[in-house]
Amino acid sequence: MRMFRMRRFVRFTFMVALIMFVLLNLLILFSVQTDISNGSSKLNSLNTFAHRHKDNRFHMQDSETNSIASVENQLWILPHMANGTYYEPMNVSGENLTHIKHEIEKINSRQFIHNLDKFGLKLNTESVVIIIQVHDRGEYLKILLNSLRKVANIEKSLLIISHDIYSNELNQLVLSVEFCPVMQIFFPHSLQLHPKEFPGEHPNDCPRNIKKEEAVQMKCNNANSPDKYGHYREARYCQTKHHWIWKLHHTFENVKVMKNYPGLILLLEEDYYVTPDVISVLQMMHNIMKKDCKDCTMLAAGNYDKSQNYGQNSGKVEVANWISSKHNMGMSFTVDLWREIKRCVKEFCLFDDYNWDWTLQHLSSQCINQQIKVLKMKATRVFHMGECGVHHKGKNCQPANKEKTVEKEIESNKQHLFPNTISIGSYSGLKLRDPKPNGGWGDSRDHQLCHSFIQNTTVH
C-alpha cells in the first residue's frame, strides 16, 4: 500500500513538472510575439515571421552590416533588439574636411536607420517616405521636426534627412527624433567639402560680372562658360539644384530599403511646417489620383494662397498642370515620375537655370512623355516658414513668431483636419508653358557634375 502511494506521488509530481514545463514554454513563446500593424497581427517569432511572410522583404540591421532579403513591392522590418544597435555621427571639427569626408562616406554606405528597434518599418503602396533637404538652418529644422512629431501615423513612415552640411548641431537634432524611423544621407559634392575647388569656388574662377572677353584674357577657369546672360556661376546658388537631383537619385537607386518601393515620397525643405493630417491626406489623394485622375503624376500637399478656407476646402483638391511657382511645396510622387525625370537627366543638367523647380517645369514642357499633371490640396497641409535663406535675406528673421502664427491657424481649424473624404473640387485652366531660364547654370562643369550622378545607372 505504501509503495502504491509512492508511485502515485511520483506520477503526480512528474505530471505537475510536465505541465509547468509546458506553461513556461508557452509563456516564453508568447513573450516574443510582436505587435504588427497596430496589434492586428501577432507573430510568434522572427523565424515564424520570415516563414509566413516569405513574399515580403525582411531586414536585420546591426552596426556593421545591413542584410535585406528582397522581394518586389514590400519591405517589412520587425521591431527587434537586433535593430537597436546605436550609431551616432562623430563630432568633427568643421575645419577637418578629411574626417568629415570619411564620416560622410561611412554614413552614406551604412544607411543606418535609427528607431527600427522601436517601430520597425513596413513599406508598401500605402506608405509615405518623407525626404527633407537640409542646409544650415537648425532653428527651422527643429520647428519642422516638431510639426512632424504631431503627424498621425508618422511612426509608420521613413524619414530621410538629406544634408549638404555636416554639422554637429544638425546631427544632434536628427538624433533627437524619437517618433519614427530616420536615416541621414549627405550630399558628397557640397561647398563645405570643396571650399577652394569646384563645385565650390576655386580662386581662379571667373567673377560673376566680368565680361567674357576679359575672362578669356585673364584665363580664369570657366572663361568659356558664362550663362545666357553673360554671368559666371555662383557656387552657393548652384549647390541646391545639384543636391536636389542627387538626393532623388541616391534615395531611389542606392538606399537599400527603397529598392522596388512603390509608394509615395514627400519632398520637404528645412523651413516647412506640416499639419497633423498630412500623411492621411496624401494617402487619400493618392487613391483619388489612381481612380479619378489617372494621368496625374504629382500630388501637392501645400499651396501659397494667402488666405486658407479650411471649412470649405479641407477635403477638396484641384487638378492642374504642374507649375513650379504654384505647386512646388509639399510635392509627392512615386518612382514612376522619378524614372521620367531620370530619363530626361541630360535636359535637366543642361537647362540654364539654377532652380531645380524651374528646370522641372521645363522638363514637363519639353521632355517628359506626358506633361506633369498635379492634384493640389485647396487647403494647404504644408506651410512655408522661411523668411531668411538663399532668396530671402530678411533682417528680422524670427521663426519662432512664424511658428506661433501657423500653429494658431492650425488650432483654429483643427475641426476641419482629417476629412472623411477627398474629392476633386476644381480644374485649373492655366496652361503649362516652357519657362524662360533664369541663368546661373551655364558652366560646363556643373553640367558634367549633374549628369555624373545618374549617367552610370540604367533606366528601368
Automatic annotation (TrEMBL):
EC number: 2.4.1.143
Enzyme class: transferase
Residue sites binding Mn(2+) per the record: 271, 384
Organism: Sinanodonta woodiana (Chinese pond mussel)
GO terms assigned for molecular function: alpha-1,6-mannosylglycoprotein 2-beta-N-acetylglucosaminyltransferase activity; metal ion binding
Residues carrying covalently attached carbohydrate according to the record: 96
Residues that coordinate or bind substrate: 133-137, 164, 239-243
Named cofactor requirement(s): Mn(2+)
InterPro entries: GlcNAc_II, Nucleotide-diphossugar_trans
Membrane topology listed for this record: Single-pass type II membrane protein
Catalytic activity field: an N(4)-{beta-D-GlcNAc-(1->2)-alpha-D-Man-(1->3)-[alpha-D-Man-(1->6)]-beta-D-Man-(1->4)-beta-D-GlcNAc-(1->4)-beta-D-GlcNAc}-L-asparaginyl-[protein] + UDP-N-acetyl-alpha-D-glucosamine = N(4)-{beta-D-GlcNAc-(1->2)-alpha-D-Man-(1->3)-[beta-D-GlcNAc-(1->2)-alpha-D-Man-(1->6)]-beta-D-Man-(1->4)-beta-D-GlcNAc-(1->4)-beta-D-GlcNAc}-L-asparaginyl-[protein] + UDP + H(+)
Protein name: Alpha-1,6-mannosyl-glycoprotein 2-beta-N-acetylglucosaminyltransferase
